[in-house]
Amino acid sequence: MNKVILMGRLTRDPETRFTQTNNTLVASFSLAVNRRFVRQGEERQADFINIVAWSKLGEFCSKYFKKGQQVGVVGRIQTRTWDDEQGQKHYVTEVIAEEAYFADSKRDSEVSNNVDNTFGAMPTNLSSDFEVSSGDDLPF
User: Fold this and answer.
1) What's the pLDDT tens digit per position in 101-117?
2) Which is deepest, 25, 36, 110, 121, by most CB within 10 Å?
3) Among candidate residues 59, 61, 62, 72, the one with its CA nearest the CA of residue 31
């Protein structure tokens, strides 16, 4: 199984390009993901993970994600190689995004005001079939 779940901050705005063969949108960006543990007397370390999002997900990321924003990404690890003009072989490991989410708190996003954070939020105007007036009415 090849599954990756990451949460981190964007190190730059997503870059968008289109493939030459079928004009498919590709967005790429990098996430700074904090390491879980901090050595005593040292600053927290972070890993910088390259993310690639294709088609509609890439369009979503390029439109709504901004540098410094905290996001969650679910995807898979992929490695690829290529030879440059001098014959030098290059290797890259990246995460191919399959899902992407806002992970900033609502307060943080209101301060930064970078994006409309209503995406994925529950509507506030839902009607309820029942109401509980006090905790005494609860059966537990």
Assistant:
1) 999 876 555 545 444 44
2) 25
3) 72
Asked if residues 130 and 85 have their Cβ atoms less than 8 Å apart, the reply is: no
What is the spatial distance between Cα 69 and Cα 115, in angstroms, rounded to a whole number? 10
Residue 97's DSSP bridge partners are 75
Do residues 88 and 110 lie in contact, with contact meaning Cβ atoms separated by under 8 Å? no
Q: Is 108 helix (H, G, I), strand (E, B) or coil?
A: helix
Separation between Cα atoms, residue 77 and residue 94, nearest integer Å? 6
State how far the Cα of 133 lies from the Cα of 107, in Å rounded to an integer. 29
- Centroid of chain to Cα 129: 36
pLDDT digits (tens, 9 = 90+) for 116-127: 443 333 344 444
Cβ(26)–Cβ(18) below 8 Å: yes
The answer to whether the CB of 12 falls within 8 A of the CB of 67 is yes
What's the CA gap between 54 and 120, in Å, rounded? 20
